[in-house]
Amino acid sequence: YHKLTSWGMDNLKVGPALGIGTIAIWDGEKAVRVAKKDSTTCLVQADGKIRSQVKTTYYGWKANNTKCNLTSLISIDAGNCASHMELLVDKTIDNLATGIIKVKGGELIVSNNKNDEWSYIATFGKQSLNKDMQGLAIFARTKQIKAITEDELNHVIVLTPDNGYAEYYFMPTWELDNEPVATKEAFIKCIDEVMHRLNNKTTITIKK
Hints:
Number of helices: 1
Number of strands: 13
């Protein structure tokens, strides 16, 4: 599945890195994925034409020196190339983290404007296993961003949850996708569209 076939391919080799949007804890030097835990449950909460959701609960997660329960809810809507990650922890955790794998050929792009409700980190370049142009982006609430940093394997966003809750979006693009993104300019346009939606609330008015 790491080679191109008629249905496509798995074009990002992750290994011990974060890939794109993986949940982690920042230990002060590196991002550590959810590893030490008592048990895990997973539920397909929605599987429809408009929205799909997967809910996962990690019981007894050892996050640095705090043992907690972590629930994640991943949602993706029709017509949206960005997936929504919502996290809820039952203990005080200051260093939740996520990030993007470092790949040779991937240019780092960062926007962290304190006046915007949302910020992002992204990479773009010939970083797919098929040597195609690929873009990877993570969007996080600016007020929840504790730090934008890196370790040996990843570009990292460190998050401070609000009453145990944190959220972010992650978005991949690919030159050979059904809606191909082959240039940096096209990738930035995709990012700008997501940022516009996130930074501008949608108002629905029902007229009787």
